[in-house]
Amino acid sequence: MSFLSDSIARVKPSATIAVTTMAKELKEAGRDVIGLGAGEPDFDTPQNIKDAAVQAISDGKTKYTPADGIPELKAAICAKFKRDNGLDYKPEQVSVGTGGKQILYNALQATLNPGDEVVIPAPYWVSYPDMALLAGGEPVFVETTSATGFKLTAEALEAAITDKTKWFIFNSPSNPTGAAYTRDELKALTDVLLRHPHVWVMSDDMYEHLTYDDFEFATPAQVEPALYDRTLTVNGVSKAYAMTGWRIGYAAGPKMLIDAMRKIQSQSTSNPCSISQWAAVEALNGTQDFIPENNAIFKRRRDMVVEMLNAAEGISCPLPEGAFYVYPVIDDCIGKTTEAGTKIENDETFAKALLEEKGVAVVFGAAFGLSPAFRISYATSDENLKEACSRIQDFCAALS
């Protein structure tokens, strides 16, 4: 009898964390490495948010809180959903967790039974399928293409749904592609979901505020109110507020689901950090002026990276609408040999050779379920990005 559970054998470690760790270790060993794997802004948390955390410490707000969030934060979240998305939620419909990842995990643990299917568009954030597997469900992948901007079509969604489908996981803007759905594109998907009342929607809106070129964000329950009672709308403060390490995510949805998620959290982690919660109150209620300022920097970086990658031999890089990732396709690099003699058999060997020969760390596309491609996070300095893209150009030019 194996000591470890069968469920642990169903999942694999996070590839993005693995790449970030490898790049850090190589740097510490003295290698000149530019890491483009981490999905976190390089900006500091805004001062007003840090001040709110310091004040909370001074005020002694360092004790246990309700398992899934303090009332003040739940009120701020309800106000945010009303202000930004036109969605009305009551505090009892809100759950606060230790990052968006815990929120998603709790929801899947609370709802999936063996054999239940979870429809996931590919490429996808690396954790979606493994969280579904840990909860006993079966991920069903639906591939998109660069020709459609890596966006799921209504026809493909319709074809993926069966009588076993319990969840459809939707992420816009997307990690890893940056693709964001217009209201019309989203309406085509919600029209499909209306025809399948047994399917629930898990909308991961973590990159909501990171959009460019006058793109207007929309979320499923906003576009189609008839889906309100079977939609879990997930968000957090990590990305737009540069608060990745604070670990605060949240969601709103039907009370029955939120109650079940609270039960799981009360028997696992209990409450998120009390100080982080008070910081998140300020993030949501305080000034939002820094968001467009940061977005202007991200947009400039995006444009530079896309232009430089498209100038590299064998690479085609779509222009994403949001987040801080690009997902270049490398079909024309497969089968070639690097300057050091490594044959590029797939995107994993491409990424490994790029790191070993040029010191640029990216995440290979197979980790996100769609190859051959790789993901770059442009949430780092212009200088690093320009140098990294120059190295990628040199790497590709030397392929033969």
Number of helices: 13
So, CATH architecture of the largest domain?
Answer: 3-Layer(aba) Sandwich
Topology as a string of helices (H) and strands (E): HEHHEHEHEHEHEHEEHHHEHEEEH
Give the spatial strand order of the biggest sheet.
2-8-7-6-5-3-4
Taking all Cα atoms into account, the compactness measure Rg is: 21 Å
Structural class: alpha/beta
Strand content: 5-15%
Morphology: globular
Major sheet details: 7 strands, mixed
Describe the structure.
By secondary structure, the chain is of the alpha/beta class. Helix 4 runs parallel beside helix 5 (127-134) and helix 11 runs parallel beside helix 13 (382-397). The chain is globular and about 60 Å long. 49% of the residues are buried. The longest helix has 21 residues, at 290-310. A 7-stranded mixed β-sheet has the order 2-8-7-6-5-3-4, sandwiched between helices. Strands 9-12-11 form a 3-stranded antiparallel β-sheet. It has 2 domains: 7-44 and 290-397, Aspartate Aminotransferase, domain 1 (Alpha-Beta Complex), CATH 3.90.1150; 63-285, 3-Layer(aba) Sandwich (Aspartate Aminotransferase, domain 2). Strand 3 (117-122), helix 5 (127-134) and strand 4 form a beta-alpha-beta unit. The protein has helices at residues 15-28, 47-58, 71-85, 100-111, 127-134, 154-160, 183-194, 220-223, 255-266, 274-285, 290-310, 347-358, 382-397, and strands spanning 34-35, 94-97, 117-122, 138-143, 165-171, 200-204, 231-236, 249-252, 325-326, 360-361, 363-364, 374-377. InterPro entries: Aminotransferase_I/II_large, AspAT/PAT-like, NHTrfase_class1_PyrdxlP-BS, PyrdxlP-dep_Trfase, PyrdxlP-dep_Trfase_major, PyrdxlP-dep_Trfase_small. Its cofactor is pyridoxal 5'-phosphate.
